[in-house]
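tmp note - Nipped-B protein
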Amino acid sequence: MSESSVPVRTKALRCLSAVVEADPGVLARSDIEMAVRSRLMDISTSVREAAVDLLGRFLICRPELAIQYYPMLSDRIRDKGVSVRKRVIRILRDICLEQPDFPRIPEIYVLIIRRVNDEESVKKLVSEVFQTLWFAPVREKESAKLINKVMNITDVVVNASKDTGIEWLEQFLEGLLAKEEGEKVRPAEKACVQIVECLVQNIMRLDEIKGMSKRLVACLATLHLFTKIRPNLTVKHAMLLHPYLSARVTPCPGPSQQAVQLDAHILHYVARILEVTIPLMEHPSESFLGQLESDLIRVALRAGKMVVESCMACLGAVVNQVSKNYELLKQCFWGFHTALETYQRDCIASLQSGSEPKLAPTLRPSILRALFTMGLLCKYFDIKEFTHDGNPKILEEIFDILLFFSEHMTSDMEVRKNAISGLGFICTRHKEFINGKKLSKFYHEILTANVDCTITKSPQLELKNLVLENLFNFLTEEERRMLEQDAQCKCNWQGMLLSNYARKWKATHKNESLKYMGDVASGTGSSVAQTYLKEVLENFFSSQSVRLAALSVVSTILRQGLTHPVQAVPYLIAMQTDCDPTSRVKAEAQLQEIENKFPGFTNMRAIEGVCFSYRLQRVLHMAKKASGGDRRESVGDGASTEAACNNSTSSSRQTRRNTDNGTTVTASEEGANPFANAIRGAKEVDSDVPNALNSQLYSMLRANITSRRAFLKGMINLFDEMQDISLGRLVYVADNLAFFPYQCQAEPLFVIHHIDLLVSVNGSTRLQAVREAFFPELKELLAAQAALSNNGQLTTTANTWSSAGFAVNDIMYHPDVQSAQHASEIQEALMRLDLEEEKEDVLIGRVTSASADQLSQIRESIRASRACLLLLNLKQYLKEVYGITDSKVQKFSPSDANKMWDKPLTRKSGVRFTPDLCLRSAIEELESEENPDSYKNALTMSEEMARDLVQEFFEFRKLILSIDPPDDEGLDGAVANVDDAACQANPGEDVPLRLAPDRSLVPQSHAPHSSDEGDDSADSDAAGASRLLLAQSAPQKRRGGRNLHTAGRGSKAAPPSTSKRKSSSRQPRSRSAFILSSESESEVESLSEEEESI
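out:
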């Protein structure tokens, strides 16, 4: 089972399955357990599926094996392979059915529930599992089985509400019961009746047992869930639940605060259950209703916010629909109104006198409750019922009072929060306020306020949460009203032929339009969505609580179709990389739904979404560092980012330089630096199977080859020097490109192909720019050489500098000097620079002694070369990890048939993507953004800093020159460019060889094309062009003058024969070369234009 071949490992597991079938006890052996565990973590999906299948066949019949293998089996429910996840879910379902006493059944239910937002096939399987386990009727004799099932359901409801939420269960149960409508046999409804009866019995029993408040809360929460879906199931139990509003719940052992919270939850669930059941009761007694109203008001005047809102909602249902008794509520309303008016006048007087308004400690609780409760009264009741003369301006007065406290009570945050909550309640019922100028301006100021996300309990973050919650509640209430109106219209339409409504409709149908009515109703929601959408989306880059609240608002907007979904796509792409699983799952579900409904929208904004995801990772990175965490989920190992990539340099240094002052920072001191680690684009970058943060996005686009290639090409184009993107973002993009879940050879080959295209255009230019920055005299030397080669003498303008031992001005002002002497002196200077380029100490000396302008040029040229360096590192990693050879790279063309490169990939273990030099530079870039003044004023450079720049140059040059070194024919042709006199003047010295001008940047075809390949498209030609010769930057071979066959002055040199070339003694290859002339640069530009047109 440790063989490298995937089929062999799969067959080995099947053979082991046959052995276990004969003796299941074999699985209890420790060596077999270790072997199965290793195969469950195998790289191949088929091997993991075979290992899961092996366990599934025998865990059911052997409970002791289920306990032993459950931990490793449950981990595979999050497997990347869909078939593996589905097989695990089926095995866990069988365990629940066959082993009802298994101690981890509630945990199994929660694990399965978490897959409800998976892809469609998995989601369907989850629904089938719960239909089988929960909603199948139980026989009357199996009461123990029913109790066990109900207890498991309550555990799942409580745990799921904290994790994924229970909305999915509501939708599932509602759909399941809707399917049975009109059927004679309704097994799901019968099962729900049994569950509700059992829950009520448990509630009565638990109330008499001390210390069972947690279980009582769980039963009430489950009963509330079933009541929301089918209220008629709980109507007959309503009077049994009423005493919980007045009776004191026995507190459980522990802190008193925990007991208070449990009591609050009990009151909350009881009020919510009574809210939907009391209106369905037939002829409830007046005494019962009066006692219920008194209890609800008493609780509302004493309890916390959650209970107050539940009690007011219950009062709204009871009073508005049943009793019509507004006297108690009227007294509450005017008491709160008088208190708020009095306190508002005092605050206005304080502001006019120039002092800050303050709230007396004795009045503070009453004012806080009045602000919150007044909003609820305006939400659930018609205010006209509370006024004697029907004052039409009473609502505006209340709104102005709440807005005043929201804006001006900056010294008391609790007052502002309660006032904002009250404003949200008013707008829910009276939607004319939410788009008003006053409230819109106030909401925009809060949503756009700059807040430090590293402070988790910032008051401004709490205000943002409240505003987002108000928007969410408004949109949800609008949706509920729309659904009720639609249902009422349908009922009226069906019954209008049998009622007086028919005559009314006949008289008014010309002036009524169902479409118009629906458009008007949805117009307010759409207006609100478009008004606040941009600000809400920008809050995706805030703290975790704000992100989750903003995502809820956006999900509601998208579900209702209030705005164009493409606006939210890049933000959702960013959110699906969030470290918070709740936010990540919601964003992935929304993104998948958009892709299913509107194919192409995701691909349209995918690149922008990846850039936004980096922005989010920066926020998370800063928040993690501020909280004192050592690592973040998407941040790589800091130690790996400090290692040098070049083995010839001192990569073993354990300290990192600080660019501000040249000092060193030890590993222990880096923990205090908020940017001690680079931001990586993958989870577990040091593992054998790292997971790109945007892997879900790539998997979504992968099925369509056009979308996939456009996405990959767009990612690579971010490295173009014209984009001017920060190195930290490029490292993040490179990580994603390295760790995407590629499945066939065509995918990494396509990435490598476009890396070659981009580097072939920018690489040599960047390398030459770095050389010219290190050697300012190089450009003049090359210009002099080009002029001498073209005209026989130099005609350029004067220059004020001179190289050591070589005065350029002498040549420029003495055209009568022999051309051979000119060429010889130029060659000597170039060779001297060539030798200096190989010496690290010389380059370090040039950097440390450089002027401010030259130092700036060196830094800028090195910075501009890092994108190419990162791409070359990425290419090298993809070739190593997937075993891609140079021949495959040369043969690949995007225009090839898909089947040619559809072979599955095998990922090698032990290969890591650690572009250390780029990671270190990305860290310094982040630090420079934090301290821009220090970096801007750093005009001098220490030797350590200079050494790092030189190492980056060496590494970049090595990778550039390794792309495609020139062949012998190209070198021999280059001999013709060397003047005869130069060869004769230095017969014993080496002459740096260069390609002829006509071979400066000619695309080379590395693989012979057959006749069938002659008709390839332009994209195939681009594949050849992607491996350019890079003549200006290629390594040069040195040959002695005796190997050069020269003619007279002005004649061209004849290339040596093949035999003579083989027998000639060759000097060591030089690791540098220089661009000959400006004409070569123009050829580069023209070639890049041709490739862009292709």
